[in-house]
Design brief:
The chain is α+β, with helices and mostly antiparallel strands. Helix content is 42%, strand content 15%. The chain is built from 3 helices and 3 strands. Strands 1-3-2 form a 3-stranded antiparallel beta sheet. Strand 2 and strand 3 form a beta hairpin. The longest helix is centred in the C-terminal third of the chain and has 13 residues.
Length: 67
């Protein structure tokens, strides 16, 4: 099972190897523009909380970089 990390927990995101975006503001911007960036599947909404699936995020970023 994948671990989901709250989008606002930048330290935990860095701990799993995701260094960018480096601020909560940057993560919020990325969430608002997730579909334009091709990252829609990396985010989930649990109630009011927005979480990131780090494995899926890395896959999508890697696929986007190779395209």
């Amino acid at each position: 099972m994948n671990s989901l990390i709250p989008m606002t927990d930048v330290a935990a995101l860095r701990a799993v190897g995701i260094a960018y975006p480096s601020t909560v503001h940057g993560w919020r911007w990325l969430f608002r523009n997730r579909h334009e960036r091709g990252l829609g599947d990396a985010f989930r909404r649990i109630g009011r909380r927005i979480v990131v699936d780090p494995e899926r995020y890395r896959e999508l970023v890697r696929d986007r970089a190779s395209a």
